[in-house]
């Protein structure tokens, strides 16, 4: 018996704005870009190595999501391997962002203790930027996780 399902599993063109996992591209851009900007606007003097990882993850995922978005938009995602690549990329992004979020939260806690001891206006501003970066990082992690789950479901159906 032959299957009546079509091989068109991934949306192309404007249809990416109407499918559930692919609709998350836009908020992933926004929150990933905000993490990048908020971390870059803080001072990187005290703890450069973990913040370097956070910057790598946010820039890497921002660029890869942009490429992924344009691949989907142009319709170059119609071969049979793309559903598994989509699920795989988003799971890697979740692992990367989760590790970066935990690292960023740890740095923010350490920096918060130092800022409360110094209690300057500039220190408090940087601390608030760090808190905002942590929140945006966890939101980006959640969005990539939801996208990964829906991509995995789509991959299993293909």
TrEMBL record:
Membrane-topology annotation of the record: Multi-pass membrane protein
Transmembrane residue ranges: 20-39, 51-75, 87-111, 131-153
Keyword Transmembrane applies: yes
MARVEL domain sequence ranges: 16-156
Main location (coarse class): membrane
A GO MF label: structural constituent of myelin sheath
GO annotation, cellular component aspect: membrane
InterPro entries the record matches: MAL, Marvel, MARVEL-CKLF_proteins
Alphabetically ordered keywords of this record: Lipoprotein, Membrane, Transmembrane, Transmembrane helix
Localisation: Membrane
GO aspect biological process, one term: myelination
PANTHER family: MARVEL-CONTAINING POTENTIAL LIPID RAFT-ASSOCIATED PROTEIN, MYELIN AND LYMPHOCYTE PROTEIN
Membership in a protein family: Belongs to the MAL family.
Protein name: Myelin and lymphocyte protein
Organism: Perca fluviatilis
